[in-house]
User: Fold this.
Amino acid sequence: MMDLFQKQHGMNIVGQGGKIMLFALPSLLAAILVHAYWPQVAALPESMGFLMPIGYLLLPLGLALWGTAGIQLLAGFSKGRLVTTGAYGVVRNPIYASVTFFVLPAVALMTATWVYLVVSVFLYAGVMIFIGKEEKQLATVFGKTYEDYRARVDRMVPLRRPRATGLPGTPLVQRRLLTCGLWSSLLYVATDLMAASWYAGYSITDQNYSELLATGAPTRSPMILVSVAYNVLVAAFAAGVWTSARPKRTARITGAVMVGYAALSLVTPLFFQMDMRGAEVTSRGSLHGPMTAVMSLFILLSMGFGAFLLGRRFKLYSFATIGLVIVFGVLTGLQAPRLGAGQSTPWMGLTERVNIYATMIWFAALAIGLLQTEKRQGSAAGSEEHP
Assistant:
């Protein structure tokens, strides 16, 4: 048993687990505090109560995967060998995956609170940010055996498939993930323009986007469905970013920040929706502004890190877009007191949409740039294989 507390090949059994746990710990503590002291804020809508039984299904599945992976890790580490079968044949990090995708969502559903889903997002981001160092160590120790294993099995989500034609050398799934960056932007802009016609009296130039999802708005239900679809596409695009772009560390950080943005963009209209203009402000509605501000910060961070994923011109374009988003974000924010007082807000919808559409165009431009880079790299690899 003492062998488990000793290093094997210069590595301990925890690996990068300490850093990952420290990264996710603040979100867990915050979730517990919000759940304990502000249960009305943490609560899922009553209409989602039918999802609770799913939690009781996910929890035993997650614990079974976690336990199986833990036993395999203990047995393999004590003998100094690489584990590539069983739970580790599904994903390379089944312990983290079981907690991220099964245990924490189960706790959220069983307690009817959304805050533990945020912990899942932070845990997932922590794995993506820190696990690379551990993978380099494993590649150094186990060489080609580990490289073959890494090429065959995904890190957290089992999506890997054989390489496909169309873009030479580019995996089919990866290409589809990157394409999600285009579809997400198109979906957002198209539904925003259409939703104004569904809402009698709504002014696209004077009213902001959040009013389409406000409590009691006639467009809330369809726009919630759009929000879910949009943020799933953004999260998928984020996965494509960190698996395809260079430099790797910057790509991982960009992808992790994008996942954070998608999570906030999903949670805010679902649980911190804006109150109707002129209506009494609720506790959830009062948090809509701060949540939107944090979401905007994640957008700016995505652009800041993403600027370094392509060439010099894209970097200049990205920082110009950041400047534009900040300027029009401030112009929109200046109207917030009038909005809160239920007064008219001339041009607020226009200034906000310049901000939003600039962001959507940037996401689409990054997706196109990465797809083109993958295509060029695939063509070069194909030329080397077939001189």
